[in-house]
Amino acid sequence: MVALVDRDGALATVDASGAKRILAAEPGTTFGFPAWSPDGSRLAAVEDRATDTSIAIFAARPEGSAASPSAAPVVVYRSGAIPPFYLYWTPDGRRISFLATEADGISLRVEPADGSAPLEGGPATVIRRGAPLYFDWIGADRLLLHVGNGPDAFLGEVGIDGASVAPPIERSGDFRPAVADAGGRFVAFVRGQPPSAQLVVAARDGSAEHSSPVFGPAAIVFDPTGVTVASIAAEDPSQVDFAFPFGPLRLIDASSGAIRTLVTGNVVGFFWSPDGRTIAALRLEAGGGSTVADRTIVEAGALLAAATSTPSQTPTPTSTPTTGAELHLLFVNVADGSVRSNRVIQPTGHFVRQFLPYFDQYALSHHVWAPDSSSILLPLVDETGSDRLVALPADGTSSSRSFDGEFGFWSP
């Protein structure tokens, strides 16, 4: 099942048969990226109105007519002064965590998903404040938190009350979320600053450490079924800093420390399939601009600080490229590096500005892959110039499926 926001602005689900069910359609309300609960039974969405912003929890499979809105959702948070913008369920599905914009930065908060807490929240709901702020849940009541930059940055495990539950990791580097493998045995992060920065993969107690040099910002995501870390970063110190990860896609085995390059060139994003056998990589290549003529990925990244709704998450880039480029979607076999499919795509501006620059954080909370690892769901511009959600098959065939939506995500 797919959860999406359609071109009319309604929040909806679409099942395997193509039946669409409207969950909410309110004039004057804009919905953010919907987040599925771990068991796929509920959806959380940010509802932005003229007077306030709220977080609502919807039953994903409500009874009644598919054409009419579902029963009233459970509202778990509402504020006119501290609007939420990013949602991430706890692993047990009992709470919803979120980032919210405050007058002097960003706060990480958590609320019970049953609506039992006060809507306005309070000090007890705040885990930490700071900017930038990224995190990965490694248990129902424990998360791996990365807040701030430079010598004052914090990197370590904390509880729901924000207190450290393990010694912090020193000398945090230039990256976004520190991540843990699905089994909770290993963590990956960046230590130090260029030219001596290192991508580190280690056991959670700090032992069995392996490292590899990185230059500039790095993105790191664990294999959902194992202990292999995928990462992108500049391959040498001379590469221009565009303030987001950009470079070859490499794999590091957390157990052995073995490193190999899976995809060469300028990879700007990647997504593990649920079965861990395939990575969908987005790579910029020189081209005639047929897919990104007026919204190239690198240019969009260079203008990110001005274009995004959360500019404090990303520093201002240092330069902007002048050459044209095409964006290629590659489906790569993780075992041997073979490319099963390589196609040129044109993503929507919404995807480029709001999702792609933080793809590694969204990889922890939102599903672009179908649960059976058969296809990936991306918002693309079609041949008529219209925005469509398209499920592109990983085997390279042309049997894609499209949806009337601005953006959307598969259920678990």
How many β-strands, per DSSP?
30
Estimate the helix proportion, in percent: under 10%
Cα end-to-end separation:
9 Å
Largest beta sheet: strand ordering: 20-21-22-23-24-25-26
Proportion in β-strands: 35-45%
Unreliable parts: 292-296, 300-323
* The CATH class of the domain at 1-128: Mainly Beta
- Sheet bearing the most strands, described? 7 strands, antiparallel
Tally of alpha and pi helices:
4
What is the CATH H-level superfamily of the domain at 1-128?
A: TolB, C-terminal domain
Described by the principal axes of the CA atoms, the overall outline is globular
Q: Under the CATH scheme, which architecture of the domain at 1-128 would be assigned?
A: 6 Propeller
**If you compute it from the alpha carbons, what radius of gyration comes out, rounded to the nearest whole angstrom?**
20 Å
User: Which class do the helix and strand fractions yield?
Assistant: mainly beta
Average pLDDT confidence is 87
Task: Report what the structure shows.
- This protein is 6% helix and 44% strand.
- The chain is globular.
- The chain is mainly beta and 412 residues long.
- It has a domain of 128 residues: TolB, C-terminal domain (Neuraminidase, 6 Propeller), CATH 2.120.10.
- It contains 4 helices and 30 strands.
Task: Summarize it.
By secondary structure, this protein is mainly beta.
Topology overview:
Elements: E1 2-5, E2 11-14, E3 20-24, E4 30-31, E5 35-36, E6 42-48, E7 53-59, E8 74-79, E9 84-89, E10 95-102, E11 105-112, E12 126-130, E13 133-139, E14 142-147, E15 154-159, E16 179-180, E17 186-191, E18 198-203, E19 210-213, E20 215-222, E21 228-234, E22 247-253, E23 259-272, E24 278-285, H1 297-302, H2 304-307, E25 326-333, E26 339-345, H3 349-355, H4 359-365, E27 375-381, E28 387-393, E29 401-403, E30 407-410
Antiparallel strand pairs: 1-2, 1-30, 2-3, 4-6, 5-6, 6-7, 7-8, 9-10, 10-11, 11-12, 13-14, 14-15, 16-17, 17-18, 18-19, 20-21, 21-22, 22-23, 23-24, 24-25, 25-26, 27-28, 28-29
